Amino acid sequence: MGKDEVDAMAFSSDYNYIKRELECVREMVAILSSQLPMPLDTIFDVLPYLAEIKAEGSYMTSSRLNELLKMLLMMDNLVQFFKKQHDSESGATPFPTLDAEFAQLSVYPFLIREIESCINKYGEIKDNASPELYEIRSQIRASQGSMQRAMRRVLDRAVASGIVDKDASPSIRDGRMVIPVTAANKRGLQGIIHDESATGKTVFIEPAEVVEAGNRLRELEMEERREIVVILRRIANEIRPHIEEISMSCRHIGRLDFIRAKGLFAIDIDAQMPHIENHSEIEWYHAVHPGLKLTLRPQGREVVPLNLTLSKERRILIISGPNAGGKSVCLKTTAVVQYMMQCGVMPTLYSNSHMGIFKNIFIDIGDEQSFENDLSTYSSHLKNMKFFVTHSGKQTLVLADEMGSGTEPQIGGALAQAILKELGKSGCMGMITTHYQNLKTFADSEPGFVNGAMLYDRQHLQPTFELSVGTPGSSFALDIAAKTGLPKYIIDDAKEIVGSDYVNLDKYLSEISRDRRYWANKRQNIREKEVKLDNLLSKYEETAGDLKAQRKAIINDARKEAKEILDGVNAKIERTILEIRNAAAEKEKTKELRKNLNEFKQKVLDSDEEKEEKNVPKALAPLKHKSRINRKPASGVNKPVKDEPLKVDDFVKLDGNSTTGKILSIQGKKAEVAFGALRTIVNLDKLKPASKPKESALSSASSYSTSTSQESRSRQLNFKNEIDVRGMRADEALQAVTYFMDDAIQFSISRVRILHGTGHGILKTLIREQLRANPSVKNFSDEDVRFGGAGITVVDLD
Hints:
The chain has about 800 residues and is of the alpha/beta class. Helix 6 runs antiparallel to helix 8.
């Protein structure tokens, strides 16, 4: 149905229709961009099905009813979707145009319930669609079960008597259950032959014992079909009074699908909603040909956009410029973009553009010569020009490529000028491309006309595909001829033939074009620099404001701290004076008090400097005094010691622990370390050098060892040579195994067992990797199959 809408899409000059269509597309783009869940998934064209059941007694198949059900559900979901978009307070919606057209779709909850009660999600009739159907299908299942049991009994007897192969199984032929029997043994099984194999060596026999049951099953199946038809006719009778309304709602869904396609296309080609005016107007910014855009996109190339303005004062644009410079592309871009908009498709230009409505678009692009109609290139152009002059008006857009070409230049130029003069009187708007000099002069002198030029880069001898309005352009014929490699003497000869005046005119036009491009670049550079200066100025003003605020905060903090320091110093001085007086001016006591006072003074100064260093902002860091920056550290500060490789008998600490241990042995990247009475194996990268502990620490460790010896003996008495880590996480299990192995080594146990289970084998692998790194482990292996097998690892210790 959406494709039918595309086929029916046509050019329109109705302002209200165009405005409504574009608003629908704009709102659809907003829905798609915001990823709102619009319920518009799989759409079925059920209109032919609805037309078929108009006659009494007709019905839809269950699969078609299932498609109709999905369409009815979609109608209901769409109505709910648009209702949810309304604001709860104001009732306004962000999609008023779509809401007005699709929020009022007819819904049929009673039909949905009726169909859902009879048909499942796969389009099959449910058993409980009617009591009669339920009874019939129950009998069918019972009959099939008895038939299968009888068939199994017959098949077992046939196999036992050697009539049928042991691996034979029943199959279906013509809807009947049969047994495959070799042709030589077909007389050994009573029944009806329904089929034979392609070679004739196997026949398919329905045993006599199940023939009656098969007949009954056939009767039940026919009753089932008749009952299904009754159900489908009942549903069709419910649908028939609403066929027209449902058909209309389905067409609305097809139209919504069409609008969604236009929205997706608009997003793909970056089309935007312009200002639509109810009169002839062209004020376009960044217009591009959508076909050219899609062609260049895979190549990673961009289309040079077209900026175009046609007004009452400048209605017809005469475009000149070099061959292959983009003149025809300008015409085609104008035609396609305008036609898209008046067909209700979002145009490919910027949203600040203004587009008017034209009743006619007249186009003469390309060669329409015809052998059948006896038309040459020039006569076909003249036939089009005759039509344009006759039918043009104020709401007409004329687009003509190379007007007057195809005949003798002087006569062709004169005819083209006369036709343009007549088109100017009609009040139409248009774009004309030409190489004729007289048309360029005519556009400068005639009201309503304006010259335009396709720019050309003379330095690189290639077109820029940019349109410049206001001055005519040069064809650059001599430059292009030189670029193609034409001999210089031929070009010089051509210059003499045409005369210096014509050559100089073409040269002046080229220079004007070059100067326009130069000053346009200059203006662009000035605008960019102004923007950059404005950004820098605002940034500097913001930074200056921040610096003032920081300076104010620092001064306030400094004043506060200075007050606190002065209060503290004054209190200290007063206490010192009081103590001197109380000491009766003893010499030694006075010296001691002065020394304390000097130390307090130095401490205050040092603390003040540290706070000042911390409070200085990064922006003001370079302004710090040199004496503070270059202050050398005190001589008593320890210098860092270079790291050296760890070796046996070194004292070390474990990362995150303050206990000092001693390295007993090193194996590869692991080391055995004694932390007091505890020995353990750890990675070297987790150890860091430590100084030798004092004797008091050793003695305390000894006393700790003595105090814990009783606990160690108790653990040894209670030690079991087996640990179960099943159900633990990997890190927990590894930690438990480490402690278990340390105890086993300490208590001189020769063999232990680790229960880890089988599972995916991850825990087993991790535990065995840890065992390989333990130098005290002699070997390990799986337990005997009788005692647990691969779920238990047996470890032998040195």
